[in-house]
Specification:
protein biosynthesis; Elongation factor G; alpha+beta; eight-stranded mixed beta sheet; nucleotide-binding; GTP-binding
């Protein structure tokens, strides 16, 4: 079986392309994952094929990356409008990072919204590989009625619902065809000395030789050939499928590529697990592509026995199913297989770095509908995070509530639907509470005496403490300058412990940071003093001093790296300024052509707004990662509003 992925932005006709390709020589068989990855099996040219139709939302990019792990080649569907080229930028980035041979298909050419050369030029801004036209459109007025193959120099007229008919190259297209063919040959000659010599000697190379060279450079991932058509009318489908058949590399090349990327012995690389999902009453289903022989039920894979092997199209299990090298199969009761992973019989190896999904930007707390679902929710989210690497599951600081980081609102909605439909856990979501701190603006001194008389021994401790602001980032410090044993040495650790306890909640209701406490005097009682008494005296004394120290609210500030296509960089300055952030600068992204990495300091409370503004400004393409940088003071009405909304004022004594 040969396998390819069809990927690209939404509304570019990916599913239609797969449907038409699968129907060229018979009826295809199709299955769908809850994550939107469609699998279609069909026969073409007496060979078995599997097409992976990857979801088109940028929020589902992780599943696109994983599909490429199992693909000999891929088809990138793009729009025929030059201004929409930027929407293909994330997919070009992933394709090039993966090293997957790619054919670029300009779809919906029956709705031309610009010149083809402008579309290619716009896409080239985001591709390190040369995008090389293999066909040009034949126009009749404003309509595209066919295409001309630049290698065979044959022209074809589209026919609705039928195969295209061979025609002579129209005079109106002859000059464009000659110009485009010359450019094609010049680029191909960069990878073939014989062709270069033929061109220098002004000899016309035969078509068979050109097809062979073109096939080789695609297999070697040297260029990205460009084909055109309109899948909804069946136009260009046969040519696209023939290009895949003759030019896409065999499964052995994929095995070599993955073994090299994962530093695995090629002969031991038995399979690749590339997709998984949970189904009601069935459990975890894993999609695997075989590289070796003998992967039947009970065989050793990933360090344990393989569960039931299923036909991925109909979900039927059979002990008679023995996938051949290249076949895609499903397996259940194989929960030991991580996804994605490179699989040997003895274990699982982490996938290549390029499969790492974009950092999720949307943070939400998931609240179960009933108390009995709280533990179940935690376990279920852990399961889902295993099958969806675009999802990160954490616990909220302070409350321990279930916090998820999703790629965006659609990803979050799909997660909630899966929890409800598959696991019967209904949840609502809310924005997590921002992490604020407080400190003091001025020093103070306090004298606190703790005295308590009970039936037996009493409690007595007397402390004199000075409290002062520390420099930013230094945190809590404690020191002592007592003399003469007024506070015995064995009680001083208790004084420090009490001061630390007082820092847990200050007068504004938040944890106190960057404060220094010094014990400089005190008294003790030979019978009634104890560690508990001194800890209590210190805690109460520090609380009192904090209430007199002009408490100041501190907001977290995060260092953000925003990844965006360069055409959007100019709009980010205004976005960051509107969020009261600080622009640090930007650089070209050395790993992705046409992208910038924009650096800024953003207040923690504005990160949600940054995610929304970024999605809006970049048509959902841009994303950011964040790391905590520091806390800074916040004053005025904004600070007052935060204290009213989130603070739980401590009790001063």
């Amino acid at each position: 079986m040969r396998c390819f992925t069809v990927l690209g932005p939404s509304q570019t006709g990916k599913s239609t392309v797969v449907e038409k390709l699968g129907s060229l020589e018979g009826a295809p068989r199709k299955s769908t994952s809850p994550y939107g990855l469609n699998l279609t099996e069909f026969t073409f040219g007496n060979e078995a094929w599997c097409a992976l139709d990857a979801p088109g939302l940028s929020e589902a990019l992780a599943h696109v990356q994983h599909a490429l792990l199992a693909s000999d080649a891929c088809i990138l569907c793009v729009s025929s409008a030059p201004e929409e080229a930027v929407l293909a930028a994330p997919y070009l980035r992933v394709v090039e990072a993966s090293g997957t041979p790619c054919i670029l298909f300009v779809n919906r050419m029956d709705e031309p919204r610009g010149r083809l050369r402008d579309v290619i030029a716009a896409l080239q801004d985001y591709a390190n590989h040369t995008l090389l036209l293999r066909q040009i459109p034949i126009r009749e007025g404003d309509r595209i009625i066919g295409s001309c193959d630049l290698i065979s120099e044959r022209a074809w007229r589209y026919r609705e619902g039928q195969t295209s008919s061979l025609i002579a190259i129209p005079e109106s297209a002859a000059e464009r065809e000659h110009e485009a063919r010359t450019e094609l040959l010049e680029h191909l000659s960069e990878f073939d000395d014989w062709l270069l010599e033929e061109l220098i000697e002004d000899r016309e190379p035969p078509s068979d030789a050109l097809y062979a060279i073109s096939s080789r450079v695609l297999r070697e991932n040297r260029i990205i050939p460009v084909l055109i058509g309109a899948a909804s009318h069946g136009n260009g489908m046969m040519r696209l499928m023939k290009a895949l058949r003759h030019e896409a590399p065999p499964v052995g090349v994929l095995r070599q590529r993955l073994a090299r990327a994962g530093n695995v012995d090629e002969n031991k690389l038995t399979a690749v697990g590339f997709h998984a999902y949970h189904r009601q009453n069935i459990g975890k289903t894993v999609l695997v592509r075989a590289f070796g022989e003998g992967l039947r039920q009970g065989a050793l894979l990933g360090g344990s026995s393989l569960g039931a092997v299923q036909d991925p199209a109909n979900g039927r299990s059979s002990s008679a199913i023995v996938p051949a090298p290249g076949d895609v199969f499903a397996t259940v009761k194989s929960d030991h297989l991580p996804v994605p992973s490179l699989l040997t019989s003895d274990g699982a190896v982490a996938p290549p770095e390029w499969t790492e999904p974009p950092t999720p930007m949307l943070e939400r707390i998931l609240v179960p509908g009933s108390v009995r679902d709280e533990n179940k929710l935690s376990e279920t989210l852990a399961k889902l995070a295993e099958t969806d690497r675009g999802l990160v599951v954490l616990q909220e600081e302070g409350t321990g509530a279930q916090l998820v980081r999703a790629q965006g609102p659609v990803h979050l909605r799909d997660l909630c639907r899966t929890l409800s439909d598959v696991f019967h856990i209904d949840v609502t979501d809310r924005t997590p509470s921002p992490i604020y701190r407080e400190t003091i603006a001025k020093p103070s001194e306090v004298h606190y005496r703790h005295r308590k008389q009970t039936g037996g021994a009493g409690q007595f401790a007397d402390v004199k403490l000075s409290i002062r602001p520390n420099e930013r980032g230094r945190g809590f410090t404690f020191s002592e300058t007592v003399k003469g044993g007024v506070v015995p040495r064995n009680y001083i650790p208790a004084v420090e412990a009490g001061a630390r306890e007082a820092m847990e909640k200050g007068p504004l209701g938040f944890q106190v940071i960057d404060v220094g406490v010094t014990l400089f005097d005190g008294q003790h009682h030979a019978v009634d003093s104890s560690e508990h008494a001194f800890r209590t005296a210190s805690k109460m004394g520090v609380r009192q001093a904090l209430s007199e120290g002009s408490a100041v609210l501190m907001q977290p500030v995060f260092r953000s790296e925003i990844h965006i296509p360069s055409i959007y960089s100019g709009s980010l300055v205004q976005i960051v300024s509107a969020l009261k952030g600080q622009v640090l600068g930007f650089d070209r992204d050395e790993t992705a052509k046409g992208w910038d990495i924009f650096r800024a300091l953003i207040p923690g409370g504005a990160l949600d707004d940054l995610a929304r503004a970024l999605r809006s400004a970049t048509q959902g393409i841009g994303y950011f990662s964040k790391t905590f940088d520091h806390f800074e003071e916040l004053y005025g009405k904004e600070a007052d509003a935060i204290v009213r909304a989130h603070g739980e004022p401590g009790v001063a004594h």
